[in-house]
Amino acid sequence: MAGVQQGPNTFFLKSPAELGKAQCFAVKRGEVNDRIDPYFHKPHFRKLIKKIKAVGSKPLGLLIQYSKEVWDKSDGCFTEAFPYIEISGVGLGTNEYKVSERPLSEAPSRARQVVRTGDILVSLTRPHRGAITQVLPEHDGAIASTGFAVVRQVDSSKIDRDYLWLCLASRFGCDQMLMRSSGGSYPAITKDELSSVLIPSITLEGQRDIIAVMNAARAERKAKLAKADALLVGIDDFLLDTLNITSPPEDHRRVFAVRSQVARKRFDPYFHSPNFARIKKMLSQTRCEPLGDIAAFSKETWNPRDHDQLTFRYIEISTVSPQTGEAHWNDVLTSEAPSRAQMKVRANDIIVSLTRPHHGSIAYLGSEFEGCIASTGFAVIRNVAEHVRRDYLWCVLRAQFCLYQMLQRTSGGNYPAIIQSELSKILVPVPGEKIQNRITSEVRHRRETARRLRDEAENGWQAAKRWFEEQLLGSTSP
Q1: What's the CA gap between 122 and 278, in Å, rounded?
Q2: How many domains does the chain have?
Q3: pLDDT (tens digit, 9 = 90+) per residue, 48-86?
Q4: Residues 84 and 180 occupy one common structural domain
Q5: Backbone dihedral region of 240: left (phi > 0), alpha (psi from -120 to 50 degrees) or beta?
Q6: Dihedral of CA 33/146/465/209: which sign?
Q7: 379, β-bridge pairs
């Protein structure tokens, strides 16, 4: 390497790369068979495959068969709506998923696969994320996106379904899927390539011993998450008790009458539902003020053309947790700024999702969010009246009696949204300073405890997954 400039701008480095992570490497001609793309032959992947083969393994395709069952929409199985499983509803490496009810008239073109109890659904799009799950008995016959490979038949003489899921959702399973994907920044894998993923071979007895340990770890994780959820769900009852408000019984009548003078401003029946009317009656028990009277919305905007940095920090509705009200941002290339990235936010702003506001995607931003950019899907509360604590306002806006009011004032049917002028009419209980302090202190304690439980649940599950990989490969690093 004589003559190569020395110093921080040196292009060639003479020191070796970290083992398995070289970005410049050579492959012997005889080792290049079906694929010649460099990414496939990265040393990291080659070392992983060598380790899996050393312990004994079989390709997935020799152990399973994919389902070919397709949904016939004219079979009359579903009349108005159908249960739908899509990739975004599957947890990453947790074997959990959500089923949404979709109107038949709005069935996505990808809603075509019928799934059965025990089927293993493997996301073919960005498969390395670990969106892999098993179908529960209560969802037998549900419809899944064609973005999944549906593993149905499993050779039970060689492999247990639970063990197979653990292998596919493990790091060594997801890394193999990434290795065999194509598509650049949005990789996808074909079923043929998925069939080549290697599954470590151990006895059925050994598989069941491992499954028992992992099931215990999953149960512990689930218990801690349930405890965290119970802490947060209980906030509503605490708020009502502290504000000395009694909640009337729910009223789900579908047929009701409204006086003509009551219906002058909004004539849509949903707005006048008795179950919403009970919320207004409930809040009449305490002092309330419209949100627009105690808070002012920011109009500060942002234009990517005026941004001289390569990237910016972007907050969108999906990055605000409905369960905890915590937000995070994604770093986005300025040149690829979404058209909705227009709202500049500051420390101590409260952002409220205008789309499906009743889900509770409402965040109180700390100092680390100063200068972030938020989607126009948020209303940004900046100025708050002196007699109202900001953290109290954030707490009470996330309470069910406020979320119900937001839902009442939405429009849009299956994808309801609220406009800022309607949001301003939400009635907010405004107690004295002492009660506000008591509420914010208790909510802060519950949130911190719930966050700790969630961290413990996640750390425990990750430790269990590392243990699982060590049992099979002898090490967690390839």
Answers
A1: 45
A2: 3
A3: 999 999 999 999 999 999 999 999 888 888 888 899 999
A4: yes
A5: alpha
A6: negative
A7: 352
pLDDT for residue 342 is more than 70: yes
CA–CA separation, 150 and 139 (whole Å) = 14
Is 4 among the domain residues? no
- Dmax (CA) for the chain in angstroms is 92
Token pair belonging to 285: 């028990």
103 and 172 in a common domain: yes
Query: Do 469 and 338 share a structural domain?
Result: no
108, two tokens: 């996505």
Same domain, 324 and 364: yes
Q: What three-state secondary structure class fits 249?
A: coil
Q: Is 68 left (phi over 0), alpha (psi -120 to 50) or beta?
A: alpha
Query: What CA–CA distance (Å, rounded) separates 75 from 110?
Result: 18
Nearest-angstrom CA–CA distance, 202 and 209:
11
Q: Are residues 323 and 381 in the same domain?
A: yes
Is residue 109's pLDDT more than 70?
Answer: yes
Q: Same domain, yes or no, for 165 and 220?
A: no
Integer Cα distance of 362 and 200 in angstroms: 45
Read off the tokens for 73: 């929409």
How far is residue 308's CA from residue 130's CA, in Å, rounded to a whole number?
36
- Residues 6 or more apart from 230 whose CB is under 8 A from it? none
Q: Which 8-state DSSP code applies to residue 350? A: E
Average pLDDT over residues 360-381: 95
How far apart CA 88 and CA 453 sit, in angstroms, is 24
Whether 34 and 179 share a structural domain: yes
What pLDDT is attached to residue 393? 96
Question: The domain containing residue 80 runs over which residues?
Answer: 30-201
Tokens linked to 427 = 């009635």
CA 169 vs CA 84, 153, 174: distances in Å: 22, 18, 6
| Residue where a domain terminates, one of 178, 201, 224 | 201
- What CATH number is associated with residue 130? 3.90.220.20
